[in-house]
Amino acid sequence: MDFALTDEQRMFKEQVLKFARKEIAPRAQAQDLKGEFDRDSWNRLGEFGILGLHFPEEFGGSGADVMTSVLAAEALGEAGVDGGLTLSYGAHTYLCADTIFSHGSDAQKREYVPRLARGEWIGCMGLTEPGAGSDVASLRTRAERKGNSWVLNGTKMFITNGSIADVAVIYARTGSGRGQQDLSAFIVRKGTPGFSVSRNLNKMGVKTSPTSELVFEDCVIPAENLLGGEGEGFLMALQTVEWDRSTLLAPFLGAISFLIQRCTRYAQERVQFGRPIASFQAVKHKIADMKIFLEAARSLVYRIAWCKDQGRPLNHLEAAIAKLFIGDWSLKPTSDALLVLGGYGYCHEYDVERIFRDSRLAPIGGGTSDIQKVLISRLM
Amino acid sequence: MDFDWTAEEQEIKSRVASVLDEKTRLELEDLEEADLDGVKRITAACMRKLADVGYLALGTGPGARGRAMALIAAQEELARVSGSLFLSIETSARLFGGVLAGFGTSDAAREISESLARGELIGALAASEPEHPPFPDGTGTGAVPDRGGYLLTGRKNYVTNALIADWLAVVGDVGERPAVFLVGPHLPGVAIGPRLKTVGYNGLAVSVIELNQVKVPETHVLGPFDDRSPLDFLRLVQDQMLTVAAIGLLQRIVAATRDYTHAHERGGKPVFRFQEIRFKLADMLTLCQSAQFLAYRAGWLYSADDTEAETVLHCAKVFAAEASEQAAAMAMQVMAGHGYLAGNPVERAYREAKLTGIAGTTSEIARMSIADDLLKEYGG
């Protein structure tokens, strides 16, 4: 067993950290307060190469391995980039662009992936519906084949990037049953008649990432917009879980590193009873607990990334454990950080409050903690 | 990076597992209820078997730092079968044996070390004192030069193996310099108290030692040392072995609870089918695996001589200690009245779980140390 990163991986993480601290993080707090997607930061991420990191060069990427992608995502969090931007990036790159790259035809890949990798286009993925989240069998959006077209009808809910996306990967039923084999994936372009954003949702956290309800009413798309084969949608959605449990969890790790750095500095500067609060055991213990959580969580996420780099099929038990641990156990360190900063921590002007809110998504998004427990107990 | 055990690590795991056959496991059940003779007989017999597969000489001493992962691989096999035997053997092989291997230069020390590796004798380390933590800056045990040797006087608390050991390694001071004295338990001036009754790990023989003007020849003295590095080494080894003990405990808890929930029925179905039970099991496994990989990473950092090794080891120890307490409490709740019965594996685990947080570096001291490291790194 060996936990060493390569020199290239370490250096790249440092580069991302430096870049994000200078170019992105200073804008994060203001954007969060406005609750607006930051297109400028997005473009900078694209220019730096983050948005298409793992794609081959011919598709606008750098051919990075999964571990490097995880380190980049972690570095964004550590730099203080808000959870909204990192969520938008995760949904765009790994849930949308990668699905097209992994399952699309050559023509589809060439048309969409380079633009998505550069950040010229924004992508989203639509699986969840008002009445179906983890319960995939209850999905109701349908796609009917009519001649050379597919006609989509249905509603998608909680779609990250939904209102700003140029390209959407949408899952819909093509078979008559409710089984996994009846689910297919489609590429839908913004502006397609019958495709609309009915509303943006006002959320507790990750505020710079638009979350939308999408409506498909007799939305006609060309037959060639089917992604992969008919009935292959469920497996495609399942494959995104590998990214969801590695690169999409990594910013949460980085955010805890950020909190540790923020709290240690604050605790040494803040004086009460004639001495820095860093000298009080209760404050030290809170800082220590953040580090303990971070170290425990880190190996779980790295393990998923390493397995994917080895070409191994996803171990669903390990993936669920990583998701559950970060989801449920991150509450305390993010809350502790808020307490270390006291009244300041409770104010919107301070980033620890933002991270506390952003982190509340961890036990909900991408499969709730309860669903992870169902999976773990089933597989153990 | 490699999350798999290497072929060598796998091999040593298999060798240790081969020793712990069904017959040995039954004997180890008796260990928990055994009187002193029984403890000595069972421990000595297992020690000889483990010596035959190379366990006792594995990764012993500061010079064997590079083999830490092989050691952890082997330790985990033993720790998950019997916590008492594990702590007894590790005290002998890694604490007593470690200080001999690393700092014993005389022929006498070498001979004892070789006998130890062959499983011919049992060692103990006497470090903790009534008024001092295990490895303090200056102890109450002191030695004065006396005709080619030293006269050693002091009192040691909580000495594991004290009543079954063939040799005691006693930590003391010569002036202000630390030293380790190799003392036979039957030497004039050595008084070993009665066996202490402990909450858990009842298969250990723990006692106090009084030393009154005990004559120790120079050949049996390690040091006096110019710095405290031998004691730092012992503290680290102790924390590492306690962490692995907690991992073994977690594994026993998960296995026993899982088996029970499938075998025990309520309302005509196995209790495993109740969601609240399954969710507890999922949490327990999550705690177990998180602790496991954190311990592995801590071990690897130590083997790589990384500057963060001690910080992460403290994280691993605190996390494993608290995870095992939480898991034991959940297991007890799942098993209800059955778990509350004396002799049940979960009842035993519930008692044993408390040790990790209070033995070696306590969870409170470890947290302080983690925070101090972070404040030093980021607080400036």
Give your account of this protein's structure.
The complex is a heterodimer of chains A (380) and B (380). Chain A has 380 residues and is an alpha+beta fold. Chain A is built from 14 helices and ten strands. In chain A, strand 2 and strand 3 form a beta hairpin. In chain A, helix 9 (281-309) packs antiparallel against helix 11. Chain A is globular. Helices cover 55% and strands 15% of the residues of chain B. Chain B has twelve helices and ten strands. In chain B, strands 1-4-5-8 form a four-stranded mixed sheet, with helices on one face. In chain B, helix 1 packs parallel to helix 4 (68-79). The two termini of chain B are 32 Å apart. Classes of the chains: A alpha+beta (380), B alpha+beta (380). At the A-B interface, helix 8, helix 9, helix 10 and helix 14 of A face helix 8, helix 9 and helix 12 of B.
What brief labels describe this structure?
heterodimer; A: 380 residues; alpha+beta; four-stranded mixed β-sheet; four-stranded antiparallel β-sheet; 10 strands; 51% helix; 16% strand; B: 380 residues; 12 helices; globular
